[in-house]
């Protein structure tokens, strides 16, 4: 049995791969266990790694360092690809308030950490680890370790130990803050849900349809292309039923006359001004239009030709060239108004109305080859990782900081992923990845990272906790709980934020999936997810940045 002992307690490639695989397998299995509806999820991998390391099952330091950093890069890059398209739009309208509140939560957490650092006298490595664990932010842990390694040349295992000790109660503390805010303000979830529905009906931005009759004299004799410039609203005239009962697909040169009936696609919040501008609404349903244009067929076509990526819809001249009308563009499950200036992306689903022949011709132009969507698109992944590492390695000098600041192997790929997924289509770069492919990349990355962190930190973990480390749990709970309660009360008391959105804000500002899962279960709607997604990108960036700055300022 010497070979078995060598395999688990020895060295070599086989030993390292086996150890990481077993740690990840056991950690994922334990992550399925829930207590009071709460689970630590994939973070169990970290604790299993610590346990294995405590019993002298460790791997080569060079291999461990490589796998840890590579896993972290895969994780943060896939997160960036996912949140990138919505990163900049999250600052618009109500997203500004949510992001300001999230920034306040991050900054208060840093302030509380600095105060505890001064009061307790703990090493900065321990405090930064406790901060990352308290807010359940794994990329922050990786960024802090990378910054510490750049400055000292050491791995900084104390950072990982602080993280591991503070993490479990961090998850619980976030959910407790959500519950306490509910009781402080005596929130009735049924009333919140009713209020949310009323607001949604007023402000929903998804595309809808309406039938109108032309009564505005200013439009008589005008072409469709002309009237689109007369009102600052995005809408599409799909079909026109003339006074002589002749119906046609509207194109840029279609003339409108008094009494013409129109089938219009527009955003919900723009309907009233559009109705007032054109004439008045009529009681003519979608089914009536479908019955009249029996020779026309609607078809949803998927854009799979790379050369279409990044082109504006108007550039394709589908109306004039093919005699079809594009009524909707569905992107990631959301219907968008098919305005001429809308930039198309690989993977968009375009709804086209026209004759069978004309729709077939458009299908050839746009692609509609679903097989292409299933093929992995590796170019933006590895190009982005390479650019991210270059960006993360650039030193930025700031006054008062003894060591130049680097975005590191966590921050650099994260920023590049956000930029490349948002602006890549402008430069004909296909950044489309299926949700399952992105999730696989992310989960493999975080699993490798957590397994290696645990295997690296386990040798002194038990001794640390026994010899005073248990107090770190309390410090972590303070860092978790205090900023959330303060900002939560401000958000509800001053800004009158809907409780469901507030739950998403709290979960997103701590980048905590278990808290989001709890919030979704309580709400029964998608408002927590929307709030979470609105603040997640900026919060993730700040957590990575502040973790590094704390190490560089206080070391």
Please report which band the strand proportion falls in: under 5%, 5-15%, 15-25%, 25-35%, 35-45% or over 45%. 5-15%
- Total strands: 9
The dominant shape is: elongated
| Main beta sheet strand tally, sense and closure | 5 strands, antiparallel
Low-confidence region ranges: 201-205
User: How many individual domains?
Assistant: 2
Instruction: Provide the gyration radius in Å.
Output: 28 Å
Structural class: alpha+beta
- Average pLDDT, all residues: 80
If helices are DSSP runs of H or I spanning 4 or more residues, what is the number of helices?
Answer: 22
> Helix amount, in percent?
55-70%
Strand order of the largest sheet: 3-2-4-1-5
- The separation of the N and C termini measures 47 Å
């Amino acid at each position: 049995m010497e070979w078995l002992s060598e395999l688990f307690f020895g060295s070599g490639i086989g030993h390292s791969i086996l150890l990481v695989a077993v740690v990840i397998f056991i950690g994922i299995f334990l992550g399925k266990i829930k207590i009071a509806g709460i689970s630590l999820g994939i973070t169990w991998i970290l604790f299993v790694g610590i346990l294995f390391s405590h019993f002298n099952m460790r791997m080569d330091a060079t291999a461990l360092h490589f796998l840890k950093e590579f896993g972290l890069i895969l994780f943060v890059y896939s997160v960036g690809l996912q949140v990138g398209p919505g990163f900049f739009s999250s600052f618009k309208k109500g997203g500004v308030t949510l992001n300001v509140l999230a920034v306040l939560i991050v900054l208060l957490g840093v302030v509380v950490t600095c105060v505890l650092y001064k009061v307790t006298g703990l090493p900065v490595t321990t405090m930064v680890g406790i901060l990352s664990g308290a807010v359940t932010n794994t990329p922050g842990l990786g960024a802090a370790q990378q910054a510490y390694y750049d400055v000292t040349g050491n791995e900084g295992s104390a950072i990982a130990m602080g993280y591991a000790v503070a993490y479990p109660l961090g998850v619980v503390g976030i959910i407790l803050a959500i519950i306490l805010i509910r009781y402080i303000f005596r929130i009735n979830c049924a009333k919140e849900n009713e209020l949310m529905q009323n607001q949604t009906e007023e402000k929903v931005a998804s595309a809808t349809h309406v039938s109108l009759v032309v009564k505005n004299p200013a439009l008589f004799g005008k072409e469709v292309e002309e009237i689109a410039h007369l009102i600052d609203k995005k809408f599409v005239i799909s079909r026109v039923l003339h006074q002589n009962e002749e119906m046609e697909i509207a194109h840029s040169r279609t003339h409108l006359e008094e009494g013409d009936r129109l089938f219009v696609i527009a955003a919900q919040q723009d309907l009233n001004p559009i109705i007032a501008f054109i004439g008045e609404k009529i009681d003519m349903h979608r089914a009536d239009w479908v019955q009249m244009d029996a020779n026309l067929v609607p078809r949803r076509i998927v854009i799979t030709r790379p050369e279409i990526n990044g082109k504006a819809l108007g550039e394709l001249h589908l109306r004039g060239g093919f005699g079809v009308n594009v009524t909707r563009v569905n992107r990631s499950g959301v219907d968008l108004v098919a305005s001429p200036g809308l930039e198309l992306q690989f993977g968009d689903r375009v709804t086209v109305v026209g004759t069978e022949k004309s729709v077939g011709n458009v299908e050839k132009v746009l692609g509609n080859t679903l097989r292409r969507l299933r093929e992995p698109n590796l170019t933006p992944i590895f190009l982005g990782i390479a650019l991210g590492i270059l960006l993360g390695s650039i030193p930025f000098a700031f006054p008062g900081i003894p060591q130049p600041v680097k975005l590191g192997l966590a921050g650099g790929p994260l920023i590049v992923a956000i930029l490349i997924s948002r602006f890549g289509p402008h430069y004909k770069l296909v950044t489309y990845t299926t949700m399952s492919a992105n999730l696989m990349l992310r989960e493999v990355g975080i699993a490798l990272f957590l397994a290696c962190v645990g295997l690296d930190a386990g040798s002194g973990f038990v001794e640390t906790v026994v010899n005073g480390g248990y107090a770190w749990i309390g410090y972590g709970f303070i860092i978790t709980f205090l900023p959330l309660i303060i900002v939560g009360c401000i958000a509800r008391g001053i800004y009158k934020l809907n409780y469901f959105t507030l739950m998403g804000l709290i979960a997103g500002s701590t980048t905590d999936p278990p808290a989001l899962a709890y919030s979704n279960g309580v709400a029964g709607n998608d408002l927590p997810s929307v709030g979470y997604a609105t603040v997640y990108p900026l919060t993730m960036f700040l957590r990575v940045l502040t973790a590094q700055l704390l190490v560089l300022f206080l070391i």
